[in-house]
Design goal:
- The complex is a heterotrimer.
- Chain A is built from 15 helices and no strands.
- Chain A is mostly helical.
- Chain A starts with 5 loop residues before the first helix and ends in an 11-residue tail after the last helix.
- The two termini of chain B are about 35 Å apart.
- Chain B is globular and about 45 Å long.
- Chain B is α/β, with parallel strands linked by helices.
- By secondary structure, chain C is mainly alpha-helical.
- The radius of gyration of chain C is 19 Å and the shape is globular.
- The longest helix of chain C is centred in the first third of the chain and has 31 residues.
- Chain C has one domain: ABC transporter involved in vitamin B12 uptake, BtuC (Orthogonal Bundle), CATH 1.10.3470.
- Classes of the chains: A mainly alpha, B alpha/beta, C mainly alpha.
- Chains B and C meet through helix 2 of B and helix 6 of C.
């Protein structure tokens, strides 16, 4: 395990102090900026979870199913059985992991890869979304539902914290740090080398005694658990869950795209992707909404303009920068420094 | 007809041909012989444009082949019967022949040429509705040759036509090549089966590790002890 | 839940057959493109959506329906060609997953563009064809028409692929890409033609859907996953496989939907799909995976 560097500790200190910095410098819109940061951290955690699997060539479009299972499981257990999320979240995570393994095992065993894997996992996402919509008596169907508010909305027992943005911020920050810790743990354990060998040449890896299927199942379980957990926390923070915001194909696609934009191969890549996509869509939304000319020309549908630009950027990213923002930056730096230093940048 | 001068070519990070110069005159049958991996197949791939040359000049009846896009080379009169035949297995025999006549000039003469090919290989006519993948090895070679003839070529390139076929069939395949030759086509053939090739080739080139090591008439070849020992096992 | 073998069950089965015509048409376009270019257009359903808006726009502007339909088909065919030229071509040599993702990006773009241009409200052509009543069963004429047109289109495409030079080249290229130059075939042309045909089929599907369904920007997400599932179930690139899979899946949807609720019909279809994939990962009619 590598030691945290000085710059990492300094960065962490700044993040911990961030709510206070915001309070003193941007007092008036404190809630808004905290909200943006919380969203970034929660999604960064989910994206990191996806990447733990995605970086080994397992490009899943099924993670919208896991975030959905996490969020809906937790809320439904609380609303209908009165089960505290302290039990509900672990239960939902277990369900998500079981589903992931049920789908993953045959996939890996039969060596379903590439297009087939992507489309099969896409079917899983769609299946879960349809179940959510179909169980509309409990889930509210396509309109979504809310966790039943407990007391004044700030409760450890009900894991509800939305009313206090500073508390929410620290919860989200802790979540994100946990995600990075899991990444480092997976990175430093032997599984990674086995999997890297496996994702390049499965036959060769199998022939030297690596149980490819088991290794793949391990990362799949971790990845699904993280996404389900992230989905549950997201639901608790938003105090609203809907099939389009936390489950379904658009969530799956958003996860994959943000990670590709940020960079799949480096630890902070998914985080950069979360910052990039959240800030971009917020910035576009604010700019567009405050531009009177656009408003009057397009009316409320102007809101889609940010998605339009976002989509265009994604297309350009995949064509011209397939390693993502952070990946490309690190690669540039590495090329520059390769003459002055002999040791390669470890992250790349 | 075909002139190569100083041709270099290779695959990424590995050069396979070094300064190849050779010529094929109209009406000739020329053989390129050499061991496995000497660059024989690469040479044919370069001529028909499947692999770009990196150096040198290459002309067909005065037309520069290096400046011709790969799919236009067939229009200069070169047809290539590739290694392993490479038929489209899930197309019928007749559709395999039809795609050989894809170029606009060839489409106009499709009916005549189809008749000619069926006359040359009556077996193909019997099997015209059958999927090419279900033909026997010898029939597949007929179909591959027929497909090449459908474009109305002047020069036919053969890449190891005997490869992977049973000994009885091998003799038949060389009989086919000889028949093509007698129809007035110019032939450039690459083969490991030197004995068979020398029965009808006028001239030969010997390729070794990407270089032309020797060339001459078939008689000269048979007279050279070294070549006989190395390639014919005599 | 009324799942008895009565006349309503028969009605559901027959409606499933009618639905299958449309789904088979959609799967055909996607399979054609995959077979030839080796790329999956994740945004295929969004191309259909663009076609629907195009037809709606032309029709509301006063064009007769057939002219509007033709406009829609050409519009989507052009969109297909542009998609290939601008987006697919630069990534033809990249990892397959990047090809998948880049068309996913296009999905977002098209959806958002439609929202910006046409708003989020439902739009309808307002054409009602009525329905055919046989005994106690009822079949809408638009569905019957859809089935007939889709079948005719598939027959025409089959004739084109089995008779014409370009059609045979399209089938040949799916079997052996490398030697196509030896036949004098420029694969780039074939790719463009295939993209145009694939787009045109999506345009035709748009014509058939616009008389049956309301138009809104997210409509692609409703049936897009279904088409992928059908293609994969039949074996990616296998046109016959896609055809049969379309019938299987539509029966699940129609019968399941009539016995339970609509979503359950779909959910059962997806579940069936996943189970089949675990038994035959290469699809029902695919070669080796």
């Amino acid at each position: 395990m590598r030691r945290p560097s000085k710059s990492a500790l300094a960065g962490l200190a700044v993040l911990i102090a961030l709510p206070f910095i915001i309070r003193f410098s941007l007092g008036g819109s404190e809630r808004y900026y905290l909200h943006l940061l919380i969203q970034i951290f929660i999604w960064a955690f989910i994206y990191t979870g996806w990447s733990i699997m995605g970086r080994f060539g397992l490009t899943s479009f099924g993670h919208g199913a896991f975030t959905g299972i996490g969020a809906y499981g937790c809320v439904l257990l609380w609303n209908y059985l009165g089960l505290t999320p302290w039990v509900g979240i672990p239960l939902s995570v277990v369900v998500a992991v079981v589903v992931a393994l049920l789908v993953g095992y045959p996939c890996f065993h039969l060596r379903i890869t590439g297009h087939y894997f992507a489309l099969l996992t896409l079917a899983l996402t769609e299946f879960v979304r349809l179940c959510i919509v179909g169980l509309r008596d409990y889930t509210g169907g396509s309109l979504g539902t809310q966790p039943r508010r407990y007391g004044d909305g700030l409760s450890i027992y009900a894991i509800q914290f939305e009313t206090d943005r500073v508390v929410s911020f620290y919860i989200a920050l802790a979540l994100w740090l946990t995600g990075l810790a899991i990444w480092i743990w997976v990175d430093s354990s032997m599984d990674r080398y086995a999997l890297e060998a496996a994702s390049q040449d499965e036959e060769a890896a199998a022939s030297v005694g690596i149980d490819v299927t088991r290794e793949k199942l391990k990362v799949t379980a971790i990845s699904a658990a993280m996404c389900a957990f992230g989905g549950a926390i997201y639901g608790q923070y938003q105090m609203y869950i809907g099939p389009d915001t936390i489950a379904g194909l658009s969530v799956s696609l958003n996860i994959v795209f943000a990670v590709i934009a940020g960079g799949l191969w480096v630890m902070l890549g998914p985080t950069v992707g979360a910052v990039f996509t959240q800030v971009l869509s917020e910035a576009l939304r604010v700019t567009i909404q405050s531009t009177a000319g656009l408003q009057s020309a397009f009316g409320s549908s102007v809101l889609a303009l940010d998605t339009l630009i976002y989509g265009l950027l994604l297309v350009l990213f995949i064509i011209y920068m397939p390693k993502g923002i952070l990946g490309t930056l690190l690669e540039r730096r590495q090329k520059k420094s390769v003459s002055s230093r002999i040791a390669p940048v470890s992250a790349a | 007809m075909l002139e190569l001068a100083g041709i270099d070519a290779g695959y990424s990070g590995f050069q396979a041909l070094f300064g190849i110069s050779m010529s094929v005159k109209a009406g000739e049958a020329v053989a390129v012989i050499g061991a496995n991996g000497a660059g024989k197949t690469t040479l044919l791939r370069v001529i028909s444009g499947l692999l770009p040359a990196s150096e040198g000049t290459m002309t067909m009846d005065g037309v520069s082949l290096r400046e011709t896009p790969p799919h236009k080379i067939i229009a200069t009169g070169i047809a290539h019967v590739p290694e392993g035949r490479r038929l489209f297995p899930r197309l019928s025999v007749e559709n395999n022949l039809k795609i050989g006549a894809y170029t606009p000039a060839a489409r106009a003469k499709f009916v005549d040429r189809l008749g000619f090919v069926y006359e040359l290989f009556p077996r193909l006519k019997e099997r015209r509705a059958q999927l090419a993948g279900t033909l026997s090895g010898g029939e597949q070679q007929m179909c591959a040759i027929g497909r090449a003839l459908m474009s109305g070529p002047k020069l036919v390139l053969f890449d190891e036509p005997s490869m992977g076929l049973a000994p009885v069939i091998v003799a038949q395949v060389f009989e086919l090549v000889r028949r093509i030759r007698s129809q007035g086509y110019t032939v450039l053939i690459v083969e490991q089966n030197v004995r068979q090739v020398l029965k009808f080739a006028d001239r030969f080139y010997l390729l070794e590790a990407g270089h032309i090591k020797a060339s001459g008439s078939a008689e000269q070849m048979l007279a050279s002890d070294d070549i006989r020992k190395a390639y014919m096992g005599l | 839940m009324q799942c008895e073998l009565d006349i309503f069950f028969l009605e559901a089965v027959l409606n499933g057959v009618l639905l299958a015509g449309l789904l088979a048409l959609l799967a055909l376009g996607l399979n054609l493109i995959f077979g030839v270019i080796d790329v999956v257009w994740i945004c295929y359903a969004e191309l259909v959506m663009i076609g629907m808006y195009g037809i709606n726009y032309a029709y509301k502007a006063g064009a007769p329906f057939l002219a509007a339909a033709l406009f829609g088909i050409l519009l989507v065919a052009l969109a297909g060609v542009l998609l290939h030229q601008l987006v697919i071509r630069p990534v033809l040599d990249s990892a397959p997953i990047n090809q998948l993702l880049v068309t996913g990006g296009v999905l977002f773009v098209l959806q958002a563009a439609a929202t910006v241009a046409f708003g989020i409200d439902f739009k309808t052509l307002g054409i009602r064809l009525g329905s055919l009543n046989v005994y106690d069963m009822s079949f809408s004429y638009s569905r019957i028409l859809t089935f007939a047109v889709a079948s005719a289109a598939m027959l025409l495409l089959w004739l084109f692929l089995s008779r014409s030079y370009v059609g045979i080249a399209i089938r040949a290229i799916a079997q052996d890409r490398q030697i196509m130059p030896l036949m004098g075939v420029d694969h780039r042309n074939i790719y463009l033609i295939t993209s145009g045909i694939g787009g045109g089929l999506a345009g035709l599907a748009a014509v058939l859907m616009v008389v049956q369904y309301d138009i809104y920007p997210q409509i692609g997400l409703q049936f897009g996953p279904l088409i992928f599932m059908i293609c994969v179930l039949g074996g990616l690139g296998s046109m016959i496989g896609g055809f049969i899979a379309a019938f299987l899946i539509s029966e699940f949807i129609a019968v399941g939907g009539s016995c339970f609720a609509t979503e359950w019909g779909y959910a059962i279809a997806f579940l069936f799909f996943m189970i089949v994939m675990f038994i035959r990962p290469q699809g029902l009619f695919g070669g080796k995976a």
